[in-house]
Design a protein that fits this description.
This protein has 183 residues and is mainly α. It has six helices and no strands. Helix content is 77%, strand content 0%. The radius of gyration is 17 Å and the shape is globular. The N terminus is likely disordered.
């Protein structure tokens, strides 16, 4: 039997329609903030990446200190992890010359390895049982890999395969919708 905690102990909010709206808005804010720092404030990709990674480390340390879901720190962590995940992917492509195909493959394998390790270690992948430091660490690692993978795959479809971002977004929406229906 899976080790479940009462909802009031969970470090993750209930997954509802509102959760997804806030998640999409948080991701959009994260992407926009990174671009603002890189281009408008002329910090560049490397400096922005270092600043955001440092802020994420600080906020994750605070997040790990709480024993239950605290909305402001949880959502700040989501925004920062979305920025850092995007920047990691962009850094590999723009600063290190790694192809979009390879970057997408790297993050899909990384995400798979996080899920395998999480399951082998904890015998669950349930976000409803994220109430220990170990499970929360796996949870945030999966989220980071998801953002990096999403950026790489989106750029691969939009730029690398020339589908454009509108069509790429539609491909992802359909894929997520089919996965949701299958679930």
């Amino acid at each position: 039997m899976e080790n479940q905690s009462p909802n009031w102990l969970s470090k993750v909010p209930q997954i509802t329609f509102i959760f997804w709206i806030i998640k999409v808005l948080g991701t959009t804010v994260g992407e926009t903030a990174a671009d603002f720092l890189i281009f408008n404030l002329r910090m560049g990709l490397t400096n922005t990446s270092l600043l955001m990674a440092t802020l994420l480390a600080i906020v994750l340390a605070i997040q790990f200190q709480f024993k239950k879901y605290v909305p402001w720190i949880y959502w700040l962590t989501v925004v920062l992890i979305s920025i850092v995940g995007t920047l990691i992917s962009d850094d590999l492509v723009d600063n290190f010359g790694v192809s979009l195909k390879l970057t997408t493959l790297i993050f899909s394998v990384a995400l798979l390895l996080v899920f395998i390790s999480w399951y082998l270690s904890e015998k669950t992948l349930s976000i409803h049982s994220v109430f220990t430091l170990k499970r929360e660490s796996f949870y945030w690692a999966a989220i980071l890999c998801t953002f990096a993978f999403g950026t790489a795959a989106g750029d691969l479809l939009g730029e690398g395969l020339g589908l454009g971002y509108g069509t790429s977004a539609l491909v992802f929406i359909i894929g997520i919708g089919l996965a949701t229906l299958g679930f």
